[in-house]
Specification:
single chain, alpha/beta, Rossmann fold, 23% strand, globular
Length: 252
């Protein structure tokens, strides 16, 4: 399941900021889970905007498994903040995105609530939800229309450490239940290694690939796995090179 994402020599810049991405090329295989890690403001979120079609590359293109650029309808995104509508209940926030769904909307909403463990809170309003619960609603909403590509922009960074671990476990369960092409931006290396099959380490802007780390451990993973620790060390070494370049004035 899922869609293959193919980045072909993608470059992007913005007025007043200069180049953000420089000749970025990579293929995200169909149904795989890939994380992007790198320094702050190096272009990770820009890549997500380009996938969604909210911005267009200055050079190069992004292909969706044989189709042209612009398959934004095949994508869904969960942001760092839940962005729930406060006047709608939990089930109302999820149902809102199902306006074009021709099937059993109520059944679909109930299935998603069960998937993220919030069935008993379906009639609750966002103001009474914890941060972790609100983020689970955001994730359910992103999954509502069965996107081929799921984009996650630091989805758990606003919650405490214990809640974050629980949300990571929930994300893994959801991915295992229905693998789809997933691209996540995160600053948490442990999170990337726990959830992803591939971790792409980026340089300071304009972002280029410093390292590509494949994670072959089966799901669900053991947080204390020595092999994951070894991969973390490798990623940290890559990022320390980035940090050194930054100190030398090569980054922004």
């Amino acid at each position: 399941m899922g869609t293959t994402l193919i980045f072909e020599h993608v470059s992007k810049g913005f007025p007043g900021c200069g180049p953000v991405l420089d000749d970025f090329s990579h293929t995200v295989p169909s149904g795989s889970f890939v994380s992007l890690v790198g320094p702050t403001a190096c272009g990770k979120s820009t890549l997500l905007r380009l996938i969604l079609g909210l911005d267009q590359p200055d050079e190069g293109r992004i292909r969706f498994e044989g189709d042209g650029v612009g398959r934004a309808d095949a994508c869904a995104i969960a942001f760092q903040e839940p962005r729930l509508l406060p006047w709608l209940t939990v089930q109302g926030n999820i149902d809102l995105v199902l306006s074009r769904h021709s099937g059993d909307r109520a059944g679909r909403v109930n299935g998603l609530l069960n998937l993220v463990g919030l069935t008993e809170f379906k009639n609750a309003y966002p103001k009474v939800l914890s941060g972790g619960m609100a983020q689970r609603v955001s994730l359910a909403r992103a999954l509502a229309n069965e996107p081929d590509v799921l984009l996650l922009d630091e989805p758990f960074s606003a919650v405490d450490a214990l809640t974050r671990m629980r949300l990571q476990d929930a994300l893994i369960r959801i991915y295992m239940a229905r693998p789809r092409t997933t691209v996540m931006v995160t600053h948490d290396i442990d999170e990337a290694l726990l959830t992803s099959q591939r971790v792409i380490v980026l340089s300071t802007r304009p972002a280029q690939i410093v390292d590509i780390v494949d994670v072959t451990a089966a799901y669900p993973r053991d947080r204390t796995d020595a092999n994951l620790f070894s991969l973390k060390t490798r990623i940290l070494r890559g990022l320390s090179v980035v940090a050194l370049d930054h100190q030398n004035g090569d980054g922004i």
